Protein: Diaminopimelate decarboxylase
Organism: Flavobacterium cheonhonense
Amino acid sequence: MIQTTDLVALSQEFGNPLYVYDAEKIEFQYKRLTNAFAKVEKLRINYAMKALSNISVLKLLKNLGSGLDTVSLQEVQLGLHAGFTPDKIIFTPNGVSFEEIEAVAKLGVQINIDNLSVLEHFGTKYPTVPVCIRINPHVMAGGNENISVGHIDSKFGISIYQIPHILRIVENTKMHINGIHMHTGSDILDIEVFLYAAEILFDAAKQFQQLDFLDFGSGFKVPYKKGDIETDIEELGKKLTKRFLAFEKEYGRELTLAFEPGKFLVSEAGYFLATVNVIKQTTSTVFAGIDSGFNHLIRPMFYGSQHSIENISNPKGKERFYTVVGYICETDTFASNRRIAEIHEGDTLCFRNAGAYCFSMASNYNSRFKPAEVLWKNGKGHLIRQRETFEDLLQNQIMVEV
Ligand SMILES: *Cc1c(COP(=O)(O)O)cnc(C)c1O
Protein backbone atom coordinates (compact mmCIF):
# COMPACT_ATOMS: atom_id res chain seq x y z
CA MET A 1 0.00 0.00 0.00
CA ILE A 2 1.05 3.61 -0.47
CA GLN A 3 3.53 5.12 2.00
CA THR A 4 3.90 8.66 3.32
CA THR A 5 7.11 9.09 1.34
CA ASP A 6 5.24 8.16 -1.84
CA LEU A 7 2.66 10.83 -1.09
CA VAL A 8 5.39 13.44 -0.59
CA ALA A 9 6.94 12.46 -3.92
CA LEU A 10 3.56 12.63 -5.69
CA SER A 11 2.86 16.07 -4.30
CA GLN A 12 6.22 17.21 -5.69
CA GLU A 13 5.63 15.54 -9.04
CA PHE A 14 2.05 16.68 -9.64
CA GLY A 15 1.70 19.71 -7.35
CA ASN A 16 -0.90 20.49 -4.69
CA PRO A 17 -3.80 20.43 -4.12
CA LEU A 18 -3.95 16.83 -5.27
CA TYR A 19 -6.12 13.76 -4.87
CA VAL A 20 -4.30 10.42 -4.76
CA TYR A 21 -6.04 7.03 -4.86
CA ASP A 22 -4.32 3.80 -3.93
CA ALA A 23 -5.45 1.10 -6.36
CA GLU A 24 -4.17 -1.64 -4.09
CA LYS A 25 -6.45 -0.51 -1.25
CA ILE A 26 -9.47 -0.47 -3.56
CA GLU A 27 -8.64 -4.02 -4.66
CA PHE A 28 -8.12 -5.06 -1.06
CA GLN A 29 -11.54 -3.78 -0.02
CA TYR A 30 -13.24 -5.32 -3.05
CA LYS A 31 -11.74 -8.70 -2.23
CA ARG A 32 -12.59 -8.36 1.45
CA LEU A 33 -16.22 -7.98 0.52
CA THR A 34 -16.30 -10.80 -2.02
CA ASN A 35 -14.43 -13.10 0.39
CA ALA A 36 -16.92 -12.33 3.16
CA PHE A 37 -19.69 -13.59 0.88
CA ALA A 38 -17.68 -16.31 -0.87
CA LYS A 39 -20.32 -18.92 -0.10
CA VAL A 40 -22.96 -17.08 -2.07
CA GLU A 41 -23.04 -18.58 -5.56
CA LYS A 42 -24.27 -15.46 -7.31
CA LEU A 43 -22.83 -12.38 -5.68
CA ARG A 44 -22.94 -9.03 -7.36
CA ILE A 45 -21.06 -5.94 -6.17
CA ASN A 46 -22.27 -2.76 -7.84
CA TYR A 47 -19.87 0.05 -7.03
CA ALA A 48 -21.84 3.20 -6.13
CA MET A 49 -19.94 5.48 -8.46
CA LYS A 50 -21.24 8.73 -7.05
CA ALA A 51 -18.57 8.27 -4.36
CA LEU A 52 -15.75 8.68 -6.87
CA SER A 53 -16.50 8.70 -10.55
CA ASN A 54 -13.18 9.07 -12.33
CA ILE A 55 -13.30 6.76 -15.35
CA SER A 56 -9.92 5.21 -14.51
CA VAL A 57 -11.25 4.23 -11.08
CA LEU A 58 -14.33 2.81 -12.80
CA LYS A 59 -12.10 0.82 -15.13
CA LEU A 60 -10.12 -0.55 -12.20
CA LEU A 61 -13.31 -1.73 -10.51
CA LYS A 62 -14.64 -3.16 -13.75
CA ASN A 63 -11.48 -5.21 -14.12
CA LEU A 64 -12.00 -6.56 -10.61
CA GLY A 65 -15.40 -7.84 -11.71
CA SER A 66 -17.53 -5.13 -10.17
CA GLY A 67 -20.81 -3.84 -11.54
CA LEU A 68 -21.98 -0.27 -11.17
CA ASP A 69 -24.66 1.50 -9.16
CA THR A 70 -25.68 4.77 -10.78
CA VAL A 71 -28.01 7.61 -9.86
CA SER A 72 -28.13 9.71 -13.03
CA LEU A 73 -28.19 9.24 -16.80
CA GLN A 74 -24.77 10.87 -16.92
CA GLU A 75 -23.34 8.33 -14.48
CA VAL A 76 -24.72 5.57 -16.68
CA GLN A 77 -23.06 7.16 -19.70
CA LEU A 78 -19.74 7.48 -17.87
CA GLY A 79 -19.99 3.83 -16.83
CA LEU A 80 -20.63 2.73 -20.41
CA HIS A 81 -17.73 4.92 -21.51
CA ALA A 82 -15.47 3.19 -18.98
CA GLY A 83 -16.38 -0.16 -20.53
CA PHE A 84 -19.18 -1.51 -18.35
CA THR A 85 -21.82 -3.34 -20.37
CA PRO A 86 -25.45 -2.30 -19.68
CA ASP A 87 -26.17 -5.59 -17.91
CA LYS A 88 -23.52 -4.69 -15.31
CA ILE A 89 -25.20 -1.42 -14.39
CA ILE A 90 -28.13 -0.69 -12.11
CA PHE A 91 -29.86 2.69 -12.03
CA THR A 92 -31.11 3.73 -8.58
CA PRO A 93 -32.29 7.29 -8.89
CA ASN A 94 -34.47 9.34 -6.59
CA GLY A 95 -36.79 12.03 -7.80
CA VAL A 96 -35.55 12.15 -11.40
CA SER A 97 -37.82 12.78 -14.38
CA PHE A 98 -39.70 9.97 -16.08
CA GLU A 99 -37.84 10.82 -19.29
CA GLU A 100 -34.52 10.14 -17.60
CA ILE A 101 -35.70 6.72 -16.39
CA GLU A 102 -36.94 5.94 -19.89
CA ALA A 103 -33.65 6.98 -21.43
CA VAL A 104 -31.69 4.72 -19.08
CA ALA A 105 -34.06 1.77 -19.59
CA LYS A 106 -33.61 2.16 -23.36
CA LEU A 107 -29.87 1.67 -22.88
CA GLY A 108 -30.63 -1.78 -21.48
CA VAL A 109 -29.72 -0.88 -17.90
CA GLN A 110 -31.60 -2.40 -14.95
CA ILE A 111 -33.80 0.23 -13.40
CA ASN A 112 -34.79 0.52 -9.80
CA ILE A 113 -37.96 2.46 -9.04
CA ASP A 114 -38.63 4.13 -5.71
CA ASN A 115 -41.97 5.79 -6.22
CA LEU A 116 -45.48 4.37 -6.70
CA SER A 117 -46.58 6.85 -9.34
CA VAL A 118 -43.46 6.22 -11.40
CA LEU A 119 -43.92 2.47 -11.01
CA GLU A 120 -47.46 2.67 -12.29
CA HIS A 121 -46.53 4.91 -15.19
CA PHE A 122 -43.53 2.79 -16.17
CA GLY A 123 -45.38 -0.50 -15.83
CA THR A 124 -48.20 0.78 -18.01
CA LYS A 125 -45.88 2.02 -20.72
CA TYR A 126 -43.27 -0.77 -20.65
CA PRO A 127 -44.88 -3.89 -19.18
CA THR A 128 -42.15 -6.15 -20.55
CA VAL A 129 -39.17 -4.29 -19.08
CA PRO A 130 -38.15 -5.89 -15.78
CA VAL A 131 -37.99 -3.51 -12.85
CA CYS A 132 -36.46 -3.59 -9.39
CA ILE A 133 -38.25 -1.81 -6.56
CA ARG A 134 -36.62 0.11 -3.81
CA ILE A 135 -38.27 -0.62 -0.51
CA ASN A 136 -37.95 1.59 2.53
CA PRO A 137 -37.85 -0.77 5.53
CA HIS A 138 -38.05 2.15 7.98
CA VAL A 139 -35.05 1.11 9.93
CA MET A 140 -32.70 3.66 11.43
CA ALA A 141 -29.30 2.33 10.58
CA GLY A 142 -27.36 5.02 12.38
CA GLY A 143 -25.15 7.68 10.89
CA ASN A 144 -25.61 11.33 10.22
CA GLU A 145 -29.16 12.50 9.46
CA ASN A 146 -28.11 13.67 6.00
CA ILE A 147 -26.92 10.21 5.07
CA SER A 148 -29.39 8.04 6.96
CA VAL A 149 -32.03 7.32 4.37
CA GLY A 150 -34.08 4.39 5.61
CA HIS A 151 -36.08 6.01 8.40
CA ILE A 152 -39.78 6.84 8.43
CA ASP A 153 -39.56 10.40 7.11
CA SER A 154 -37.01 9.61 4.45
CA LYS A 155 -37.72 10.58 0.85
CA PHE A 156 -36.16 7.33 -0.39
CA GLY A 157 -37.90 4.15 -1.38
CA ILE A 158 -41.47 2.89 -1.31
CA SER A 159 -42.67 2.23 2.19
CA ILE A 160 -42.78 -1.38 3.25
CA TYR A 161 -46.37 -0.68 4.31
CA GLN A 162 -47.27 0.05 0.70
CA ILE A 163 -46.51 -3.43 -0.61
CA PRO A 164 -50.21 -4.09 -1.20
CA HIS A 165 -50.28 -1.05 -3.46
CA ILE A 166 -47.19 -2.26 -5.33
CA LEU A 167 -48.85 -5.64 -5.84
CA ARG A 168 -51.96 -3.98 -7.18
CA ILE A 169 -49.89 -2.05 -9.72
CA VAL A 170 -48.05 -5.22 -10.75
CA GLU A 171 -51.31 -7.06 -11.21
CA ASN A 172 -52.90 -4.27 -13.20
CA THR A 173 -49.96 -3.62 -15.50
CA LYS A 174 -48.63 -7.19 -15.73
CA MET A 175 -45.17 -5.76 -15.26
CA HIS A 176 -42.28 -7.94 -14.16
CA ILE A 177 -40.55 -7.22 -10.85
CA ASN A 178 -37.16 -8.93 -11.00
CA GLY A 179 -35.49 -7.49 -7.93
CA ILE A 180 -36.08 -5.76 -4.66
CA HIS A 181 -33.72 -3.37 -3.04
CA MET A 182 -33.09 -1.46 0.14
CA HIS A 183 -30.43 1.04 1.09
CA THR A 184 -30.65 2.17 4.66
CA GLY A 185 -28.05 4.89 4.33
CA SER A 186 -24.47 5.33 5.28
CA ASP A 187 -22.79 4.31 8.47
CA ILE A 188 -24.29 1.09 9.72
CA LEU A 189 -22.92 0.86 13.22
CA ASP A 190 -24.56 -2.34 14.17
CA ILE A 191 -24.83 -5.36 11.91
CA GLU A 192 -27.80 -6.60 13.92
CA VAL A 193 -29.73 -3.59 12.67
CA PHE A 194 -28.71 -4.46 9.13
CA LEU A 195 -29.79 -8.06 9.60
CA TYR A 196 -33.09 -6.86 11.02
CA ALA A 197 -33.68 -4.73 7.92
CA ALA A 198 -32.67 -7.73 5.78
CA GLU A 199 -35.42 -9.80 7.42
CA ILE A 200 -37.93 -7.17 6.36
CA LEU A 201 -36.62 -7.43 2.81
CA PHE A 202 -36.82 -11.24 2.83
CA ASP A 203 -40.37 -10.95 4.03
CA ALA A 204 -41.23 -8.52 1.27
CA ALA A 205 -39.50 -10.73 -1.31
CA LYS A 206 -41.95 -13.55 -0.65
CA GLN A 207 -44.68 -11.41 -2.18
CA PHE A 208 -42.99 -11.48 -5.58
CA GLN A 209 -42.67 -14.72 -7.51
CA GLN A 210 -40.18 -13.86 -10.23
CA LEU A 211 -37.27 -12.24 -8.50
CA ASP A 212 -33.75 -12.67 -9.83
CA PHE A 213 -31.96 -10.66 -7.19
CA LEU A 214 -32.11 -9.12 -3.76
CA ASP A 215 -30.13 -5.93 -3.35
CA PHE A 216 -29.09 -4.96 0.16
CA GLY A 217 -27.66 -1.58 -0.77
CA SER A 218 -24.77 -0.34 1.29
CA GLY A 219 -23.97 1.93 4.16
CA PHE A 220 -20.95 0.04 5.41
CA LYS A 221 -19.06 2.17 7.86
CA VAL A 222 -15.35 2.70 7.41
CA PRO A 223 -12.86 3.81 10.08
CA TYR A 224 -11.58 7.39 10.01
CA LYS A 225 -8.91 6.87 12.59
CA LYS A 226 -7.34 4.10 14.63
CA GLY A 227 -9.84 2.58 17.01
CA ASP A 228 -12.94 3.76 15.12
CA ILE A 229 -15.84 1.36 14.88
CA GLU A 230 -16.29 -0.08 11.41
CA THR A 231 -18.82 -2.47 9.95
CA ASP A 232 -17.58 -5.98 10.61
CA ILE A 233 -17.93 -7.19 7.03
CA GLU A 234 -16.65 -10.66 7.81
CA GLU A 235 -19.23 -11.11 10.56
CA LEU A 236 -21.98 -9.67 8.40
CA GLY A 237 -20.87 -12.00 5.60
CA LYS A 238 -21.16 -15.03 7.82
CA LYS A 239 -24.56 -14.16 9.25
CA LEU A 240 -26.22 -12.78 6.14
CA THR A 241 -24.92 -15.61 3.92
CA LYS A 242 -26.50 -18.16 6.22
CA ARG A 243 -29.81 -16.33 6.20
CA PHE A 244 -29.65 -15.74 2.45
CA LEU A 245 -28.99 -19.40 1.60
CA ALA A 246 -31.88 -20.45 3.82
CA PHE A 247 -34.13 -17.92 2.21
CA GLU A 248 -33.19 -19.09 -1.27
CA LYS A 249 -34.35 -22.60 -0.36
CA GLU A 250 -37.56 -21.27 1.05
CA TYR A 251 -38.13 -19.10 -2.00
CA GLY A 252 -37.48 -22.04 -4.29
CA ARG A 253 -35.41 -20.21 -6.84
CA GLU A 254 -31.78 -19.18 -7.23
CA LEU A 255 -31.19 -15.56 -6.42
CA THR A 256 -28.36 -13.10 -6.83
CA LEU A 257 -27.26 -11.28 -3.70
CA ALA A 258 -26.28 -7.73 -4.55
CA PHE A 259 -24.59 -4.87 -2.69
CA GLU A 260 -23.76 -1.38 -3.80
CA PRO A 261 -20.96 0.02 -1.70
CA GLY A 262 -19.33 3.36 -2.40
CA LYS A 263 -17.48 4.43 0.70
CA PHE A 264 -16.39 0.94 1.68
CA LEU A 265 -14.52 0.46 -1.59
CA VAL A 266 -12.86 3.83 -2.05
CA SER A 267 -12.91 5.99 1.10
CA GLU A 268 -9.71 4.77 2.70
CA ALA A 269 -7.92 4.52 -0.65
CA GLY A 270 -8.00 8.29 -1.05
CA TYR A 271 -5.61 11.00 0.16
CA PHE A 272 -6.00 14.70 -0.32
CA LEU A 273 -2.81 16.76 -0.31
CA ALA A 274 -2.73 20.51 0.19
CA THR A 275 -0.05 23.09 0.88
CA VAL A 276 -0.07 25.31 3.95
CA ASN A 277 -0.08 28.90 2.70
CA VAL A 278 -0.18 30.67 6.03
CA ILE A 279 0.16 30.09 9.74
CA LYS A 280 -1.78 32.60 11.78
CA GLN A 281 -1.57 32.91 15.53
CA THR A 282 -4.62 34.50 17.07
CA THR A 283 -5.54 35.10 20.68
CA SER A 284 -7.33 31.76 20.83
CA THR A 285 -5.76 29.34 18.37
CA VAL A 286 -3.17 28.73 15.69
CA PHE A 287 -4.66 28.57 12.22
CA ALA A 288 -3.06 26.63 9.42
CA GLY A 289 -4.49 27.99 6.17
CA ILE A 290 -4.19 25.70 3.17
CA ASP A 291 -4.46 26.23 -0.59
CA SER A 292 -7.89 24.63 -0.69
CA GLY A 293 -11.34 24.91 0.84
CA PHE A 294 -14.79 23.43 0.64
CA ASN A 295 -14.55 23.85 -3.10
CA HIS A 296 -12.30 20.77 -3.03
CA LEU A 297 -13.36 18.90 0.09
CA ILE A 298 -16.72 19.83 1.54
CA ARG A 299 -17.48 16.90 3.83
CA PRO A 300 -16.17 18.42 7.08
CA MET A 301 -18.32 21.54 6.58
CA PHE A 302 -21.28 19.73 4.99
CA TYR A 303 -21.77 16.94 7.48
CA GLY A 304 -19.05 17.22 10.02
CA SER A 305 -16.89 14.35 8.84
CA GLN A 306 -13.61 14.12 10.72
CA HIS A 307 -10.81 13.46 8.27
CA SER A 308 -7.54 12.77 9.98
CA ILE A 309 -4.82 15.20 8.94
CA GLU A 310 -1.08 14.62 8.94
CA ASN A 311 1.81 16.92 8.18
CA ILE A 312 3.71 14.72 5.74
CA SER A 313 6.46 17.32 5.32
CA ASN A 314 7.40 17.02 8.98
CA PRO A 315 5.99 13.67 10.12
CA LYS A 316 8.27 13.39 13.13
CA GLY A 317 7.83 16.98 14.28
CA LYS A 318 6.66 17.91 17.75
CA GLU A 319 2.87 17.81 17.89
CA ARG A 320 0.94 21.01 18.43
CA PHE A 321 -2.70 22.05 18.18
CA TYR A 322 -4.03 23.61 15.02
CA THR A 323 -7.26 24.73 13.45
CA VAL A 324 -7.00 23.85 9.78
CA VAL A 325 -8.88 26.22 7.49
CA GLY A 326 -9.27 26.89 3.78
CA TYR A 327 -8.84 29.96 1.58
CA ILE A 328 -12.52 30.36 0.70
CA CYS A 329 -14.10 33.69 1.55
CA GLU A 330 -16.54 32.11 3.96
CA THR A 331 -15.82 30.11 7.06
CA ASP A 332 -14.38 26.82 5.90
CA THR A 333 -12.92 24.89 8.77
CA PHE A 334 -11.56 21.45 8.01
CA ALA A 335 -10.68 20.63 11.60
CA SER A 336 -10.59 22.43 14.94
CA ASN A 337 -8.02 21.98 17.62
CA ARG A 338 -6.24 19.08 15.95
CA ARG A 339 -2.99 17.64 17.16
CA ILE A 340 -0.64 17.76 14.15
CA ALA A 341 3.16 17.58 13.84
CA GLU A 342 4.52 21.13 13.85
CA ILE A 343 3.51 22.95 10.69
CA HIS A 344 5.58 25.47 8.74
CA GLU A 345 4.35 27.53 5.84
CA GLY A 346 4.90 25.51 2.66
CA ASP A 347 4.35 22.12 4.31
CA THR A 348 2.04 19.55 2.75
CA LEU A 349 -0.92 18.35 4.81
CA CYS A 350 -2.47 15.01 4.00
CA PHE A 351 -6.17 14.32 4.61
CA ARG A 352 -7.16 10.69 4.94
CA ASN A 353 -10.38 8.96 3.83
CA ALA A 354 -10.45 11.28 0.85
CA GLY A 355 -11.59 8.70 -1.69
CA ALA A 356 -15.36 8.86 -1.27
CA TYR A 357 -17.53 11.96 -1.74
CA CYS A 358 -14.55 14.27 -1.91
CA PHE A 359 -13.50 15.00 -5.48
CA SER A 360 -16.99 14.03 -6.65
CA MET A 361 -18.43 16.90 -4.60
CA ALA A 362 -15.80 19.45 -5.67
CA SER A 363 -16.87 22.72 -7.29
CA ASN A 364 -15.37 25.82 -8.85
CA TYR A 365 -16.49 28.13 -6.06
CA ASN A 366 -14.32 31.24 -5.84
CA SER A 367 -13.38 30.48 -9.46
CA ARG A 368 -10.74 28.04 -8.38
CA PHE A 369 -9.57 25.08 -10.42
CA LYS A 370 -10.54 21.59 -9.36
CA PRO A 371 -7.49 19.57 -8.28
CA ALA A 372 -5.68 16.94 -10.30
CA GLU A 373 -6.25 13.24 -9.51
CA VAL A 374 -3.62 10.51 -9.47
CA LEU A 375 -4.08 6.75 -9.32
CA TRP A 376 -1.23 4.97 -7.50
CA LYS A 377 -0.63 1.53 -8.95
CA ASN A 378 2.40 -0.76 -9.02
CA GLY A 379 4.57 1.81 -7.26
CA LYS A 380 3.79 4.57 -9.71
CA GLY A 381 1.48 7.58 -9.85
CA HIS A 382 -0.72 7.76 -12.97
CA LEU A 383 -2.35 11.09 -13.72
CA ILE A 384 -6.07 10.36 -14.19
CA ARG A 385 -7.36 13.93 -14.26
CA GLN A 386 -5.50 17.08 -15.13
CA ARG A 387 -5.71 20.08 -12.90
CA GLU A 388 -8.18 22.52 -14.42
CA THR A 389 -7.02 25.59 -16.28
CA PHE A 390 -8.40 29.04 -16.92
CA GLU A 391 -9.94 27.75 -20.18
CA ASP A 392 -12.04 25.31 -18.16
CA LEU A 393 -13.49 28.18 -16.18
CA LEU A 394 -14.46 30.02 -19.35
CA GLN A 395 -15.83 27.01 -21.15
CA ASN A 396 -19.61 27.28 -21.64
CA GLN A 397 -19.68 30.90 -20.52
CA ILE A 398 -20.93 33.38 -23.05
CA MET A 399 -19.88 37.00 -22.76
CA VAL A 400 -22.63 39.29 -23.91
CA GLU A 401 -23.02 43.03 -23.63
CA VAL A 402 -26.71 43.76 -23.50
C1 LIG B 1 -24.97 6.54 -2.14
C2 LIG B 1 -25.59 5.25 -2.34
C3 LIG B 1 -24.88 4.08 -2.05
C4 LIG B 1 -23.48 4.07 -1.49
O1 LIG B 1 -23.44 4.40 -0.14
P1 LIG B 1 -22.05 4.31 0.65
O2 LIG B 1 -22.38 4.76 2.00
O3 LIG B 1 -21.08 5.20 -0.03
O4 LIG B 1 -21.59 2.90 0.58
C5 LIG B 1 -25.51 2.88 -2.31
N1 LIG B 1 -26.76 2.83 -2.81
C6 LIG B 1 -27.48 3.93 -3.10
C7 LIG B 1 -28.83 3.81 -3.65
C8 LIG B 1 -26.91 5.17 -2.86
O5 LIG B 1 -27.64 6.27 -3.14
